[in-house]
Structures are given as structure tokens and as C-alpha cells.
């Protein structure tokens, strides 16, 4: 293998940044307002309203739309993965194309094959995330069908609230898996820069992290979503944080 020390260091940097951001986002969501936080609250509201509605036809249609989007990404990932695996058999042609580009570091067929193998692993990861999200959205569909009926007297208000929170939790987990699959696409774009130069790989990784951070914690859509609850971006209030942990 013709990987240089710089290649190994940049690859380790890429993996550590990706995994660290996943952990950072999970921990930060408990202390600061984010897309994950507000979407969880809105999903709880949705499921709570669901248990007090006579018909759930519109809710089933909305859930079906979300599931179709995730299914589209899952099927697209298979096609992308097939394309990457096809390139493995024509590494020499890829090398000739890369060498014709400016600022491309010295490369070799075995090096390109290794990089393509790594890229395929990223899309395999995304495929598993998307398919697990699809399954969990299917679980939400089952919960939607089993939701307490509006006119039913067999459920108390407390039981309806418990059902709404647990259904929203399953819904939220499906959303997290879908989000992880999308992040894999973002980091795959950064990974492509490794084919050109290791330093460009590092820069693109940092750019992707900054874009993800801004969209999840500083975006306009976050401000609009928080405004529906009378909130603004920043740290979660202590009382709300305690209620989340409980």
C-alpha cells in the first residue's frame, strides 16, 4: 500500500472528527436548543394531538411522505454504492483522470482502490442508517394505528399522555437514524477531496462540520421552529432540561 504518513493522519482525523461530532451533537442537544430538541417537542405535540383526533388520515399521509423520502435515500445509496464498486475495477482510468487535474497529489491505482473502498464503507454505513430509520418509521405507523381513539373511554388522560410520549420517542429515534444517514452523505463529500490532496481533505472535513453545526444550532429554520414555542437559540433552561431527563 502506497499510503503516506500524511494520508494516514488525515484519514484518522476525518474518522475522529466524524465520530466526535456525532457524540458532540448528542450531548449538546441536552443543553442547547437545536433541531433535534425542537423536533422532539413538535413530535410530542403531534402524537398528543393524534390521541385527541377522531380521524388520523392526514397523519398517516404525512408519515407516509416522510417514509418515502427516507426510502428514496436508501435506494439512492445502493445506486451510489454500485457506482463506487464499479470504479474499483477501473482504478487505472481513475488515476489518469486525477492526474489531469491541477493540485492533485501523487497517486497510484492501489491507493485509489483503497480510497474507493473507504468511500464504499461510508455509503454502507449510510444504507444501514436509512434502512433502520425506515423500519422505525414503520413502527410509528403501527403505533399510529394502535393510538387511543378519540371517543374511546378505555383510556385516561394520563394513559394518552404516556402513549404520546413513547410514540414520539420512537418517532424521534427514527429521525435520528435518518439524520445520521444524511450526515454520512455530507462527510462523503468531504472524503472525495482526499482523492485530490490530503490537506484539502482536512479543510473539507472542517467545512462540513461547520455547515452541520450552523444548520443544527444557528440556522434560520431553527429560529423559526423555536419561535413556535416562544424560544430562541441558546442554552436550555434548567427546568426544561430536568423535564427532558425525566
TrEMBL record:
It holds the Pfam family DUF599. The chain crosses the membrane at residues 6-24, 116-134, 185-213. It comes from the Bacteria. Keywords: Membrane, Transmembrane, Transmembrane helix. PANTHER family: OS09G0494600 PROTEIN, PTHR31881. This is DUF599 domain-containing protein. It comes from Pseudidiomarina piscicola.
